[in-house]
UniProtKB/TrEMBL annotation:
Record Pfam families: DUF1194
InterPro entries found in the cross-reference section: DUF1194, vWFA_dom_sf
Organism for this UniProt entry: Rhizobium pisi
SUPFAM superfamilies noted in UniProt: vWA-like
Recorded superkingdom: Bacteria
Protein name (record): DUF1194 domain-containing protein
Gene3D superfamilies the record matches: von Willebrand factor, type A domain
Length: 258
């Protein structure tokens, strides 16, 4: 019991003693957010604000309360070519509006910074390891990856995806398409074929800055409620990929071989 209490207190300091033993949550959700230098500070700030607003929105709170247990566990980190270690916001139970606001405020207090390269595979591996180590058992386990380009650093993305999916996790994507990407057929197609996976996995594209907050909120509500998105943004995981899942690595190699 002391070990469990110490772990819970060390995570966020907000999980009450009464919650010990109530380990089941409707969703264990990891938010993995791209902060690579292909986005400028303004875009990253808009992205950050989109998550903060979505976490405080009534639709998000209502989705949490509408679940079987009426609570979720959520965590957050930023990534580029590597995981930004001081960006990790560890697991917190969200059961009330106050819980959601407290988590959003932690995120809002983070300094905004950018890093080099893009390693979606590292983001997926980090998300999977956080879910495995979580003191909460999610009825569903979801890694939520947002990004604005294909994998070009670290391990290839598809083995990381397949390993997480084989463990029972779902990977959803938010394809940030505010400017042309290195994915020839569109970043949303790349994410659909190479990144997302698991039952009901989906990718949502964002084409305009003003749509970001709405897209984030929509994505979170879908993930928490378990609803199926429209077929226009849902893909069948496991289908033969049409996109080149190594396109980012090839472009980076070609850049240095010029």
């Amino acid at each position: 019991m002391l070990t469990t209490l110490a772990v819970l207190m060390g995570l966020s300091g907000v999980v009450p003693v009464a919650e010990i033993g109530r380990s089941e949550v409707d969703v264990a959700l990891v938010l993995a957010v791209d902060t690579s230098r292909s986005m400028d500070f303004e875009e990253i700030g808009i992205q950050r604000q989109g998550y903060v607003e979505a976490l405080k929105h009534k639709e998000f709170i209502d989705a949490v309360k509408g679940g079987l247990t009426g609570r979720i566990a959520i965590s957050y980190f930023e990534w580029a070519g590597y995981v930004v270690q001081d960006s990790v916001i560890d697991w917190q139970v969200i059961e009330t509006e106050a819980d959601a606001i407290a988590f959003a405020d932690k995120l809002d207090a983070r300094p905004i910074a950018t890093q080099r390269r893009t390693s979606i595979s590292t983001a997926i591996a980090q998300g999977a390891s956080m879910i495995i180590a979580a003191p909460f058992q999610g009825r569903r386990e979801v890694i939520d990856v947002s990004g604005d380009g294909p994998n070009n650093s670290g391990n290839p993305v598809t083995p990381a995806r397949d390993k997480a999916v084989a463990s029972g996790m779902v990977i959803n994507g938010l394809a940030i398409m505010l400017r042309p990407s290195d994915a020839p057929d569109g970043l949303d197609k790349y994410y659909a074929d190479c990144v997302i996976g698991g039952p009901g996995a989906f990718v949502l594209p964002v084409h305009k800055v003003e749509d970001f907050a709405i897209a984030v909120r929509r994505k979170l509500v879908l993930e928490i409620s378990g609803l199926s998105p429209p077929v226009t943004v849902q893909e069948t995981a496991g289908a033969a990929p049409a996109a080149d899942c190594l396109v980012g690595e090839k472009q980076w190699r070609d850049f240095f071989e010029r």
